[in-house]
Amino acid sequence: MENLNENTIIKNYYLQQFPTDELGVEINQDITFYDLFYTLDRRKDVYDFLGVDDSIVRERCFSALAKVMKCDYEYIYDQWLLSA
Predict the structure, then answer these.
(1) Residue 67: beta bridge partners?
(2) What is the model's pTM?
(3) Model pLDDT for residues 16-32, shown as the tens digit of each residue
């Protein structure tokens, strides 16, 4: 996806990148990658935030977030582990 950044709507990104994943339509509307990072930073429940309780969706969103934040996936994952 071109112009992937912190203001990208996660649902739009996900549906474009993974059109065959039926769970994509369940992702909460109007949440951005910045919102996801802030949710992790505040140690809030990522599954509640996304609106989808699926580890594949979470991992795909984390991978994209790592690109947005220009950091390793492990950093994002470790941040999530601290909140679990």
Answers:
(1) none
(2) 0.93
(3) 999 999 999 999 999 99
